[in-house]
Sequence to fold (160 residues):
Amino acid sequence: MKAKVHVTLKNGVLDPQGKAIQHALGSLGFSGVDDVRQGKYIELDLAETDAAKAREAVERMCKELLANTVIENYAISIEG
Amino acid sequence: MKAKVHVTLKNGVLDPQGKAIQHALGSLGFSGVDDVRQGKYIELDLAETDAAKAREAVERMCKELLANTVIENYAISIEG
Fold:
């Protein structure tokens, strides 16, 4: 199965990388960009064939390694 | 409007960051992880209210700044 994980900073956590992108876009002449937030996107190929078990495993991976749950949220989607 | 951009490495391009995650997951006892690819996920808040114009602007942002189109693909989704 394939798992797609989005790791994003929680609301209220400063995102200097997003701000840098926003300023760079401004310098390049793109106006009307009110806010930019950058997160991580991780694709995993899993040997597991049961969707529920795969989701549970990826949930544990997020908590233990992929996301810093103090400042980051994660979202998991499992595909066949 | 809100734009969500996924920037991923093209197939065939080595992804050392993904490999590092894969090995770290193995060290933590997660077996059955066949492959890991890491990409970027960028959320933009745009002042533009026309979806077609917003998509066109984000397309240009991707080409000029957000993605290195030699080695990376990008996917854009626009939300109301």
About this structure: Strands of chain A lie at 2-9, 33-46, 72-79. The first helix of chain A runs from residue 16 to 27. The helical segments of chain A are 16-27, 51-66.
